[in-house]
Amino acid sequence: MPSNFMKKVRDTLRVRRYSYRTEQAYCYWIRYFIRYHQLKYPGDLTPDHVIQFLTYLAVQKQVSASTQNQALNALNFLYTQVLQQPLGDVTKATRARKPPKIPVVFERDEIQNIFQVINPHYLLPVKLLYGSGLRLSECLRLRIKDIDFHRQIIIVRSGKGGKDRVTMLPAGLINGIKCRINQVRHYHQADLDAGFGEVWMPDALARKYPKEAFSLHWQYLFASYKRSIEPYSGKEMRHHMDDSTLQRAVKQAIAKAGIHKKGSCHTFRHSFATHLLDDGYDIRTVQELLGHKDIKTTQIYTHVLNRGGNATRSPLDRLILNATKNNATAPSASFRSTQEG
């Protein structure tokens, strides 16, 4: 398929303000769909071709339900927004099953162990993931201006679903964040001295307020140690820390701490919610801090608080408990022999 077509897809995504990650994912699935059908023009393909592709993903490739849904969303965007024609009914496609899952949660001592062994360069963002319940992308996209030390809050801009929200700023991280800001100030001044210093700003704000792109308060809190090329403008700028490096550091720390759980950066967000509920905070408060639209999404963490079998005691535990009590109350052999004598 000519690159002009994919350029049209990218332009349409950017006009509608889709994130760069979404743009990458949608373009991947659209190219995959076109190659699957021997490079035929998508406008000539019918809903049956879409059903065939989605079924192939579920049956032959055995992708997860979320992956298949992402492919469907990409194709729906292709037909409705780019080709301007309805996608039609694709409900006949074999759907990947999505079994209910209880999130993995770190215990408090496990989190402390991870803090002790993780690379110190990544300790502050990891503490922020747990202390404020941030998603990985939300944490790395924080700008200096989003930190309010006076009110001890963090303003999360354009979170999941494009929504803004406010979450807590842990008091124990204030000094560390101030030190981090001083470090970013040195980075920024070095960039200005080298003829750079501009940072990416959303929704064409850089054109509306050209000087703001060179200001300190718009710089990323977790700025990268080196500059890179911004994909939209092609300019050399200082972006935020790469998410893959933080994910890799967390994986290494989990293994080093001897924790046998399939944890990740997102596990700290699960732990944040679970520990707040465990401490007695209202579920509505936790919902607001997490930015969940539906209370049902937050309620999944209440299942983590229950012991196995909905807090029902195993009969084996009852048996062991009774045996322990009987042994504790039974007279010793020496006492019995004395009494008999």
Write a brief structural summary:
54% of the residues lie in helices and 4% in strands. It has 341 residues and is mainly alpha-helical.
Describe the protein's architecture and organization.
The structure is a single chain. With 341 residues, the chain is mainly alpha-helical. Among the domains are: 3-82, Tyrosine recombinase, N-terminal domain (DNA polymerase, domain 1), CATH 1.10.150.130; 142-239, no CATH class. The protein has 16 helices and five strands. It has a three-stranded antiparallel sheet with strand order 1-2-3. Strands 4-5 form a two-stranded antiparallel sheet. Helix 1 runs antiparallel to helix 2 and helix 3 (47-59) packs antiparallel against helix 4 (65-82). The mean pLDDT is 88. Forms a cyclic heterotetrameric complex composed of two molecules of XerC and two molecules of XerD. Belongs to the 'phage' integrase family. It is found in: Cytoplasm. One of its GO terms (cellular component) is cytoplasm.
How are the SSEs placed, and which strands pair?
Elements: H1 3-15, H2 20-36, H3 47-59, H4 65-82, H5 108-117, H6 123-132, H7 136-140, E1 147-148, E2 153-156, E3 165-168, H8 174-193, H9 205-208, E4 228-229, E5 236-237, H10 243-256, H11 265-278, H12 283-290, H13 295-305, H14 308-311, H15 315-329, H16 333-340
Uncertain runs with pLDDT below 50, 5 residues or more?
none
Distinct helical segment count: 16
Q: Tell me the overall shape.
A: flat
Radius of gyration: 27 Å
| Helix-residue proportion | 40-55%
Strand content: under 5%
Separation of the first and last Cα atoms? 101 Å
User: What's the count of strands?
Assistant: 5
Mean pLDDT: 88
Keywords: Cytoplasm, DNA integration, DNA recombination, DNA-binding
Protein name: Integrase
Subcellular location: Cytoplasm
Subunit structure: Forms a cyclic heterotetrameric complex composed of two molecules of XerC and two molecules of XerD.
